[in-house]
Specification:
16 helices; 4-stranded parallel β-sheet; 26 strands
């Protein structure tokens, strides 16, 4: 069993995304099955490249070179083929989040100057997304994959045959430092921003993760239920396994815990990509043995709770590697490693990256983390200045997170700058409030918000989906565990469900709105 863990080498990153796919095909063999779709259809490297040439040729007649073209598809072979089809002919995929709502998608389209959306009728029907399409149709030209396939020309079919053998005849080969993909922030704090990643940004992050975590192309199978509009789902869940020769099982939504547990067992997957929220659902929904084939779960997007680790360890022998990322870093910034897995931390920085911590008034331990490296974005696009790239200052990206870094280089996240409340003159982390609730009611979801308080500046409110939630229990727990009483929420509310984004993260924008409403606080 040979591992593909190796030192990160920047030379490997100076290539376009499509050229990287062609190189992987040469390395692992065109006939190797590399993707298994949700309907269990298997695709080899040759089939993906052939389909990319055919679809890309057809889409090139409907789009312009270097045009940003939206891709709005579920996690599937179709999404991967559409992504590489655009790459092959020098177009730039802009990955649209179909859970974001029409307002945010129109703002995203404005920021990135997108006028066309590539999607599929079957997906729109199955996802009940026709109302969304109706709202978007006056802003975008909707291109359905079914229509494109029906109208493939003889030229498209010839390119499908010849392209994989003689790619230089047809394929665009852009410079590694030009734009490779545009993704979007969630828009919970205003309009979504376009995040412009170069080919090198994504390829660098692929190589950084390969150098950080051992992968075995002969025996590993990766299970990816995360959306490709999310950078974790795209880079780590789709591009990386293709580059590393790891067969990947795609699942169209992370919101089907029973089906996912069954597919993991049926496919004998060894690696799972997930978030804390999702993996805890899969572990509860799965029967004994369903997840036994997994050797590790790579979790990002939100903190992995101690309760989740304990449950997974008790029911299955799965190692959870918690990581830390940002779309702006393509996305992986840091991650734990097998043999050096430190619960409560997000591990060490990726190779080739550097960081700095800037002091934050009122916070003694740690500072605001800035990161720089070959995986850090070219810049932002904003709806207020369409098409104008706003690069990070001197290459440093402000993560907005308060972090500590120990002498071993291990990073711990204390919380987002915006997720601290000023109560009685002290800065209180809302993550600590949620941790207290999770310790008392580990089987439920909890979200804290800071809302205005006429006397103390701000007050903390906790929303929870458990009927048992109450303030006295939280106060007693804090007193017994040496936690400041300021971290006990002023008010607690039982809600039917905690708002969650399509990426699996808690939707703190809507949590705050709900907290204000329930607390009866009027906002201007």
């Amino acid at each position: 069993m040979t591992a593909v863990g190796y030192e990160f080498r920047q030379a490997r990153t100076r290539t376009s995304l499509f050229s990287g796919l062609l190189k992987a095909r040469s390395e692992f063999g065109g006939k190797k099955t590399i993707i298994v779709d949700s309907d269990e259809r298997e695709l080899s490297y040759d089939e993906i490249i052939r389909a990319s040439f055919a679809l890309g040729s057809a889409l090139s007649r409907l789009t312009a070179p270097k045009e940003n073209v939206a891709v709005m598809l579920p996690t599937s072979a179709g999404a991967v083929i559409a992504f590489y089809a655009l790459q092959a002919y020098g177009r730039i995929p802009a990955m649209f989040n179909f859970t974001a709502g029409s307002r945010n998608l129109k703002a995203a389209g404005q920021a990135a100057q997108v006028t066309k959306i590539v999607t599929a009728k079957r997906f729109i029907d199955q996802g009940n997304l026709q109302p969304l399409i109706d709202q978007l149709a006056d802003h975008f030209e909707i291109i359905y994959l079914e229509d494109v396939r029906e109208n493939l020309s003889l030229s498209d079919k010839i390119k499908a045959v010849i392209g994989p053998k003689l790619p230089f005849l047809f394929a665009s080969n852009p410079s590694h430092d030009t734009t490779g993909v545009v993704l979007f922030t969630s828009g919970t704090e205003g309009d979504p921003k376009g995040v412009v990643l170069s080919h090198q940004n994504v390829m660098a992050n692929v190589e950084q993760v390969r150098a950080h975590i051992e992968l075995f192309p002969e025996t590993d199978t990766l299970f990816n239920p995360l959306p490709t509009f999310h950078c974790f789902g795209l880079t780590v869940g789709a591009v990386l396994p293709l580059m590393a020769g790891i067969k990947t099982i795609f699942h169209p939504t992370p919101l089907q815990p029973r089906e996912i547990a069954k597919r993991i067992k049926a496919s004998q997957s060894t690696i799972l990509l997930a978030t804390d929220t999702f993996i805890s659902q899969y572990a509860r929904a799965g029967e004994q043995g369903d997840l036994e084939s997994l050797r590790l779960a790579v979790c990002g997007a939100e903190r992995v709770r101690d309760e989740t680790r304990q449950m997974i360890r008790k029911k299955y022998s799965i190692e959870i590697l918690e990581g830390y990322g940002a779309t702006e870093a393509s996305p992986v910034v840091a991650a734990n490693q097998m043999g050096n897995n430190i619960p409560g931390s997000v591990g060490k920085l990726m190779s080739g990256m550097s960081y700095k911590l800037e002091p934050v008034p009122g916070i003694d331990k740690g500072g605001r983390m800035f990161v720089r490296g070959p995986n850090v974005m070219k810049g932002y696009l904003r709806a207020s200045a369409p098409g104008q790239l706003e690069p990070p200052k001197d290459g440093w990206h402000d993560t907005g997170d308060i972090c500590t870094v120990d002498k071993e280089g291990v990073i711990r996240i204390r919380g987002r700058v915006k997720r601290f409340a000023k109560v009685g003159g002290e800065m209180i982390s809302l993550a600590v409030v949620e941790n207290c609730a999770s310790a008392i009611w580990p089987d439920n979801m909890h979200a804290a918000a800071a809302i205005p308080d006429p006397r103390k500046g701000e007050q903390i409110v906790l929303l929870s989906d458990t009927d048992a939630v109450n303030r006295p229990d939280m106060l007693a727990w804090a007193q017994n565990h040496g936690v400041s009483e300021l971290s006990v929420p002023r008010k607690v509310f039982k809600v039917d469900e905690i708002p969650v984004l399509g990426t699996g993260k808690i939707d703190y924008g809507n949590v705050t709105k709900l907290a204000l409403e329930l607390a009866g606080v009027e906002t201007v």
